[in-house]
Amino acid sequence: PPVITTEGDAVHFHLPAETRHALAEMALRGGATMFMVVHAAVAALLSRLGAGTDVPIGTPVAGRPDEALAGLVGFFVNTVVLRTDTGGDPTFTELLDRVRQSDLAAFDHAGAPFDQVVQAVAPIRSPAWHPLFQVMIAYHPAARPLDPLGGVTALQEEVDTGTAKFDLAVAVSEEGDGAIEYRTDLFTRGTAEKIAASLADLLGRVARDPDTRLSRLSVDPIEHPAWEPLPTAPRPPGAAGIEARLCELFADVLGIPRPRPDESFFELGGHSLLAGKLINRVRTEFAVQLPIMTLFEAPTATALAERVTSPHRAGHGLDVLLPIRTGGDGAPLFCVHPLFGLAWCFSGLAGLLDSPVYGLQARGLNRPAALPGSLDEMAADYLAAVRTVQPAGPYRLLGWSFGGVVAHAMAARLREEGEQVGLLAMLDSYPLLPGEEPETGDDEQDALRFLLRLAGHAARGPLDRRGVVRYLRAAGGVPAELEEPTISAMIDTAINAERLIQTDRHPHFDGDLLFFTAGVDKSGSELDPSRWRPYVGGAIEDHTIDCEHHELADPEPLARIARVLKERLR
C-alpha cells in the first residue's frame, strides 16, 4: 500500500515446556537471555523467508538510563533497533552469540531518542513503511497476579484491537504463549499462521539441536497470491510524453527501431558502456540528475519515466542480488562480480541469452557491512541471495576474475549440500596451486593502481585512497556515478578478495568447468585453466577469447562468450 495503515489482526502459538526449558538452558550456556533467543529465532526465520542477511528488528525499552531522570514521574519508553547479521550460514549457537553482542551494544545506547537515530541514519523515507525496521519483537516475563484494588479483584484480559503498528510484531511470554500481530493489508491470516507455525517449529528444532545451521532450518513456504489485473491508474501529466521520448532515446543509443515501452534496455542489446551514454542523454534531455545505476533498477522506458518524474526513489543497483534479466526460459544464470564487487559488467548478457540473468555483488556497497572472513562465508552469503530467486537446483554459476573463485566455492558448497550444479563457468579466473606462495606487496596500493587502470588512467608513485576516490569521481565514467563511500567500499572489497585468494583454501568441486581464457598477452604466462585441476573433478573445457582480461565484458568478447553459454543453457 502507498501509505501505512493500522488495520491488523493476530495469530497465536504455544511453545511446550520441554522446548522452553531447552531454550533457557541454551541461553544460560551462551550468557544470553531468552529475549536474545527469540530475537535470533525471528531473525533466522526472516532471513530464511527472503529478508536477506542484514535484518533490522525493533524492540521497545523502558527505564531511566540517565540519572538526571531518576526523580521524574512518568513512563519513559523508547524504541531500539537491533541489527542482525545472519550471513555466512552460521549455526544457531553462533547466531545467538552474534545477537548477544549486538543486543548488548544496542542496549548500551537505549537512551538515544529514536527520532534522533532516524535523523542520523537519514534513510530513504516513504509513507509506505517505517523508516528503520518493519518487524517488532518483545519477550514478556511471567505475569504476576494483580493485587486487589480496595477489595475488588483485578484480572488481566487481552483485548483484540484489530490494529497493527508494524508489518509484524512478535511477542513471546515466559509461559510459552506467543502471538504475531500483522497488518492485514500485507498478510492474509493463512500467511500469518504459517509464519507463526514456522517460528514455533524453528524454536523447537534449535532447542533440540542448537548447532543446526540456518540453511538446514526448514520453514513453511509462504505462498504469494496469484497475479490479478488491476484497474489502470491515471498517469501523471506528461508521463506518456516522457515515456515516448525515452523510447526514442533507446532506439538512438542502441541503433535499433523504436522499442516498446516495456522492453528492457539490456535485453534490447544494451550493456554497461551504452548505459552511461543513455543516462547522459536522459540527464541532458530532462534536466534531471540520475545515477547510472538507475538504469539497472529501471531498465524499461516505462520504469525509467517514473524515475525521471521521481528521481529520489530508492533502488537496488548496489544490492547483493542485481536483477539483470528477470524473464526468459529455464533456470537463471547467476554471475559473480569481479575484484571490485560490482556486477554491472554482466548487463550485456541480458540481450544475448534466453535465460534469466542475475548479478551477485559484494555486500557493503550501499551500506556498511563486515567483510567476509573466508571464501566459504562469502559463498554461503551469496547462495542465500540466490535462493530467494531459485530455492532448488540445478544451479548455473558464472564468475569473472575473482568472481570465478567465488563461483567455484559456491558450486562446491552446493554439492556438499546435495544440490545439483548445472553449470560452472569462469572468465579468466585462476587459483593458487597447492603449496604455491602468494605474491607479497601492498594490497591497498595494488588495488588503487588496478582501479585507476580499469578506469583508463595510469598512476606512478605512492597513491592516497582519498585522492584516488576524488580523482575518479571528477574524471567521469562509471566511478563518477558512485558516492565516495561506495568507491571506498569497492577498494576494501578488492583488498579483502586478494587476501582470501592468498590465504584461504579452495574446496573441491566434483563437476565440470567451462572456462574462457583472455588470450591476449598470455605468452609466457603460467596462468592456465589447468591450474584448476586439483580443485575440479570433472572435465575442464577451455575457450580462448581474443582480448585482454579487462575486456572480457566488452560487447564483442561478451557476444562470443554468450554464444557458447547459450548452447550450454538450453
Automatic annotation (TrEMBL):
Signal peptide: none annotated. Its cofactor is pantetheine 4'-phosphate. Keywords: Phosphopantetheine, Phosphoprotein. It comes from the Bacteria. GO terms for biological process: amino acid activation for nonribosomal peptide biosynthetic process; enterobactin biosynthetic process; lipid biosynthetic process. GO terms for cellular component: cytosol; enterobactin synthetase complex. It holds the Pfam family PP-binding. Residues 237-312 form the Carrier domain. The keyword Nucleotide-binding does not apply. InterPro entries: AB_hydrolase_fold, ACP-like_sf, CAT-like_dom_sf, Condensation_dom, PKS_PP-bd, PP-bd_ACP, TesA-like, Thioesterase. The keyword rRNA-binding does not apply. One of its GO terms (molecular function) is phosphopantetheine binding. This is Carrier domain-containing protein. It comes from Nonomuraea cypriaca. The lineage of its organism: Bacteria, Bacillati, Actinomycetota, Actinomycetes, Streptosporangiales.
